[in-house]
Predict the structure.
Amino acid sequence: MQSAFTGQDEPIYCSQQIKIPPQLPDMLKKFTKAAIRTQPTDLLQWSYAYFDSLSKGEQPPVKERLELPPPAENVLSIGLLKVINKQLRPMETIKKSLLLEKWKNLNLSREKLAELCNLGNFQNEFKWLEFLALACSDLSPNLTETMKTVCSILTKDEEGGPDRITFSLFLELYRYLASFDDSIDNQYVDTVIEQLQPE
């Protein structure tokens, strides 16, 4: 049969000749649900990252649930930090190039990433949780709210629970973040930690 578009003969297929891979419907269904939950601002880049992660047996860049209101384009949010944390949390230290890749896949602002790296003096390799804590501070008005955000991202509790993390981890990240606030001295930090000590 001659195509009206190309003017060339093209083969005609019947339904019996077309074989659909058995995994395809379920794969596309999961992909569609993931895209709806994550609401990527650059669908093409995110789709590449999604299937590339699956092909490597890695955690894809997918939100656990729809974030409302959806973050504006290139803007960091708690939901997007959770996505990156799920991908990087197994590693204690990360390479800056790897973080940049995950950042790019979510179409986040490279200027914001550079700002956070400059603030924390993060070079080629650094502790992931320190970067995460500093990124949380960019989303929160004060240290108390920042620690709440950190706990909500790092907790292993079910949604709606108390957002608990280990006390030692809380202390480590609290001290780290307090070091960036000139209005908080060491005596205040020690007093707060003493009050928070479990009995």
